[in-house]
Amino acid sequence: MKFEHREIPEGINVTSVHPLRELAVLLSGAVVLIVAVVYILGLSAGFMAPYIPFEVEQKLAASFPVEEPESIEVDAYLQQVTGRVVEAMDLPEEVAITVHFLHGEKVSGDTVNAFATLGGHVVVFSGLLEKIPNENALAMLLAHEIAHVKHRDPIVSLTRGVTISSALGLLLGWSDLDLMGEAGVYTLLHFSRSMEQQADTEALHAVYKLYGHTQGASDLFEVINAWHQASGSGEGIELMQTHPLDQKRIKALKDLATANHWTEVGEITPLQQRFVDSLKGREGMLRFNR
Amino acid sequence: MTNLIIFLVLMTLGYLVGQMAEKRHYKSIIQREKRLSGMPAIASRFPPTDKRFDQCLVTGNTVVSVDYFKRFIAALRNLLGGRVTSYESLLDRARRESMLRMKEQAQAMGADYVFNVKYETASISKGRKNAIGSVEVLAYGTALIVCDRGTGHEI
């Protein structure tokens, strides 16, 4: 018997496709898939979360430590303005707002920030309070955070975050596609940006209702913008930020006021003197302590 | 952002180096296959009976690893389904290289044929999902060496 070797033609066991072409096709497919999943889950979480009773939120929030107010004067004034803002915003009955003020040193230097979290808790950093020029801007700030609570944004964000991260975890967790998760994150940012815009709109409504004009409301964003520039944390690319760019927000507020024919010029209400003094006093005490 | 940069660097590196290594490997495979074409490797279990042969086990073993680029494409495939083309060439190379190594061993022994040739494939990455991504192919067979002494051994 004679055995011979026959040459096998090349390329039988390999599909001939350019690797870069395949990468492009697969990558776009995966991005579309992930964005669709995040978008659908994000929307459904947005629809479902508001049906979670506010009490559940409060119970969830009860696990966070609540600190005693550091300055009675500051706290009293904050509560007073909050009370007026809450009235102007006609919140649902069961929703209760609790304002805390936190001095930045505890967190990270002079943080100029404020946020609303689960259970109607609104936290304002002293770094921001110290820079606020008038009561109108303060009311705008509080109204913005209270609008988040009214829209149930904290619980919506939480539900969204949990569902989407578990879905992406299931989808991508076992492979080295972690980076693809960022496609999802950017879709999420889009959601939270629209939350901010709605909160701004609602807040300007409240300010107009309270003072009869919108003067001073945009001072808040001027302060934040000034801090952004000074701290060098910069504005950056809008796509990568949760919040709309400061200048855009100011312009959006102007447009809103014009569209509703709200008076944009009016008398500015100054901050209560005792409040300003005790904020400054606290500052002095801190310096001394150091 | 840093993640993205690291990712892009790894992808470019994986693609360029991986493609180069693959091209070079294929070139050498094709060359050596031509050279060893005189040594038939046969799957049949029954050797020719016209001559007496000495028999010896010959093996060829290859482990090939994936580059980052290939692994990323394969991971995307996991998401969307379809042929994992980036791993096809990997297995093809490993199989052919193993066969060549087996034949080279048989040739060194002075064999005429390799009979009862079989392949085994194993994944080295088993149990360590993302740490290593490599494939092992073992080719083995019975080398038949013609006995010069005439009498030979019993089969």
UniProtKB/TrEMBL annotation, chain A:
Domain Peptidase M48: 75-256
Leader sequence residues: none
Cofactor info, note text: Binds 1 zinc ion per subunit.
Obligatory cofactor(s): Zn(2+)
Annotated InterPro entries: Mito/Outer_Membr_Metalloprot (IPR051156), Peptidase_M48 (IPR001915)
UniProt keyword terms in alphabetical order: Hydrolase, Membrane, Metal-binding, Metalloprotease, Protease, Transmembrane, Transmembrane helix, Zinc
Segments crossing the lipid bilayer: 23-49
Family statement drawn from the similarity comment of this UniProt entry: Belongs to the peptidase M48 family.
Protein name, UniProt field: M48 family metallopeptidase
TrEMBL record, chain B:
UniProt-listed SUPFAM superfamilies: YbjQ-like
Gene3D superfamilies to which the protein is assigned, alphabetical: Hypothetical protein apc22750. Chain B
Taxonomic superkingdom: Bacteria
InterPro entries xref list: UPF0145_dom_sf, UPF0145_YbjQ-like
Recorded family membership: Belongs to the UPF0145 family.
Entry-linked PANTHER family: UPF0145 PROTEIN SCO3412, UPF0145 PROTEIN YBJQ
Protein name: YbjQ family protein
Organism: Amphritea atlantica
